[in-house]
Amino acid sequence: MRILSAAQTRQADQATIQEEGISSVALMERAATAFTQWLLARLSPTEAGDTLIFCGPGNNGGDGLVIARQLHLAGFVVQVFGLPADTYSADFETNRQRLPAGLALQTLALDALPPIAPGSLVVDALFGTGLSRPLAGLAAAVVEHLNQARARIVAVDMPSGLFADMPQPADSPIVRARHTVSFELPKLAFLLPQNAQYVGQWHTVPIGLSRQFQAQAEGKLYFVDATLLAGRLPKRAQFGHKGTYGHALLLAGSRGKIGAALLATQACLRSGVGLLTVRTPAVGYDILQTAAPEAMALTDPASDFISELPELSPYSAIGIGPGLDKADETKLVLEQLLRETKVPLVVDADALNMLRANPGLLQLLPPDSILTPHPKEFERLAGPARDDYHRLELLREFCQQHRCYTVLKGAHTCLGTPTGELYFNSTGNPGMATGGSGDVLTGILTALRAQHLPPLDTALLGVYAHGRAGDLAARHTGEAGLIAGDLTRFIGPALQELTTPDAF
Ligand SMILES: NC(=O)C1=CN([C@@H]2O[C@H](COP(=O)(O)OP(=O)(O)OC[C@H]3O[C@@H](n4cnc5c(N)ncnc54)[C@H](O)[C@@H]3O)[C@@H](O)[C@H]2O)[C@@H](O)CC1
Ligand SMILES: Nc1ncnc2c1ncn2[C@@H]1O[C@H](COP(=O)(O)OP(=O)(O)O)[C@@H](O)[C@H]1O
Ligand SMILES: [K+]
What's noted on cofactor binding (predicted)? Predict the structure, then answer.
């Protein structure tokens, strides 16, 4: 799925209108109907109670008028309010005319804002993607009024006052919605933690936006759903053998953190790799051989940390990082690995911190490596970000400069590519915010890369399957009860869902 800017969204609307030969007011009717249907599927008129709809002067307000008409006809107790303005959009005017006799548009005034009983349903149709500057004056006062009411706010397309694709001053008035129901595609703003307080839970409803426009639109932002991944994970070959599926090497673990190595090991084994060798310090030998007999243990001479790089020739991909100690010897191992490897690397956790501690090491990073920092680790690598938008700029620059793929982990993990694309993941849940989840991701990525998948497919599939495994696991454990080891049990089913079936 594409993520379009506000300007592109307007162009997409126009392209749809032209392609289908429909009027803009017909497209508005379609969009607003999709919103109404979404609401009707969740609330009866009784459950909704008092329903107050707040409309701005543009097409977002026009949507609000259609929704008011439709909910009124569906038996909801509706009141509809409009911001006074010098001009209204043409489709707003048309829909004002279409309001049924029993439903008058009431004009909002600063000294007479309507009372909102606690628990009321509020539909926020003040502003959408056409917002051109932060709200002020009466519009800001209305937003403040809505936010203070203890109402259930559902925003149409965008929470009013929020820009779709760029940051805004810290104190901007913005509606704090419980749900945001957006048309066709998510907006960039929805995917960033700083906006969660306004967007609430977001949903998209289809409105038949031009597929051709979506396919051809410029821009490098993607929302990763199963459709985008179709065809990227081949089915296993009927006559495949373990040599077909690569030999991965994991360098992981130190005294007290052999568990991290074990989690990465289990995840790697569950992600289809043909063979796996694990380098841990000697203290990890018995643990690894007992808990993961399928993996080969290649223990380091040092007891507590990794001190020597093994011979690299057997391996088709190498993952390094989970549970490492930052001992000087391990730093040298990392440096030697960066210099000597001829195969792709997956770099995680303290290996990332070591990269940063010696900036010269970053220059040695082999092209097409995959890095998996969480935001704190990324900040150490690329510097502090002013806000979530700035962090994305830093991510893009970092990936281009170092010709690497960087998986910036979080609720919507964002993959940056060497060619400037940003891919936001759609799977996963807060239950995965638990120690060891990241180690599991390293194991998955190393396994996919060892199977000779290209780096982009590896990162997209791996991040998606990791989140999907979390979603499947949480059905059994609940979010709070989820631990990283649970993820490994569901990697197989998650990958199976993504596997391309044989064509008949
Ligand atoms: N164009 C189309 O065909 C469709 C548009 N749709 C809806 O239309 C919305 C976009 O409509 P518009 O482009 O009319 O934009 P909006 O309705 O979001 O807002 C634009 C209006 O607000 C004013 N405005 C902008 N910033 C302001 C500020 N800070 N303070 C006060 N006034 C401000 C503008 O002058 C203009 O009158 C979408 O979010 C969606 O809800 C949907 O109906 C789908 C179809
Ligand atoms: N709220 C969330 N929603 C979805 N995924 C999450 C959420 N919180 C964490 N995750 C995922 O869990 C993993 C945590 O990784 P990381 O921070 O490296 O943990 P650790 O170092 O403990 O292994 C990441 O892949 C991240 O995307
Ligand atoms: K809105």
Answer: Binds 1 potassium ion per subunit.
103, amino acid identity: L
Is 119 marked within a binding site?
Answer: no
Closest to 77 measured CA to CA, from 55, 52, 112, 43: 52
Q: Is 147 annotated as a binding residue?
A: no
The answer to whether residues 207 and 345 belong to one domain is no
Residue having the nearest C-alpha atom to atom 19 of ligand 1: 130
Of residues 89, 25, 27, the one with CA closest to residue 55 = 89
- Rounded to 10 degrees, the C-alpha dihedral 271/275/276/277 comes to -170
Tens-level pLDDT at each residue, the chain (504 residues) = 999 999 999 999 999 999 999 999 999 999 999 999 999 999 999 999 999 999 999 999 999 999 999 999 999 999 999 999 999 999 999 999 999 999 999 999 999 999 999 999 999 999 999 999 999 999 999 999 999 999 999 999 999 999 999 999 989 999 999 999 999 999 999 999 999 999 999 999 999 999 999 999 998 999 999 999 999 999 998 898 988 999 999 999 999 999 999 999 999 999 999 999 999 999 999 999 999 999 999 999 999 999 999 999 999 999 999 999 999 999 999 999 999 999 999 999 999 999 988 878 999 999 999 999 999 999 999 999 999 999 999 999 999 999 999 999 999 999 999 999 999 999 999 999 999 999 999 999 999 999 999 999 999 999 999 999 999 999 999 999 999 999 999 999 999 999 988 778
Residue 324 phi/psi, 5° resolution?
A: -70, 155
On whether both 64 and 202 belong to a single domain, the answer is yes
The ipTM estimated for the assembled molecules is: 0.91
CA 117 – CA 128 distance, rounded (Å): 25
Q: Are residues 16 and 100 in the same domain?
A: yes
pTM: 0.96
Mutual angle of helices 258-269 and 484-498, in 10-degree steps: 20
- Residue found under tokens 């490596």: 369
Residues 205 and 243 in one domain: no
Q: Is 116 in the pocket of ligand 1 (CB under 6 A)?
A: no
Residue 59 CA neighbour count, 13 Å, CB half: 19
- Angle, alpha carbons 151-155-159 (nearest 5°): 105
Q: Is the dihedral of CA 378, 382, 387, 388 positive or negative?
A: negative
Task: Say yes or no: 407 and 468 in one domain.
Answer: yes
Q: Are residues 185 and 319 in the same domain?
A: no
Protein residues with C-beta less than 5 angstroms from the ion ligand 3: 124, 155-156, 160
Which residue, chain included where needed, has tokens 């009717």?
Answer: 29
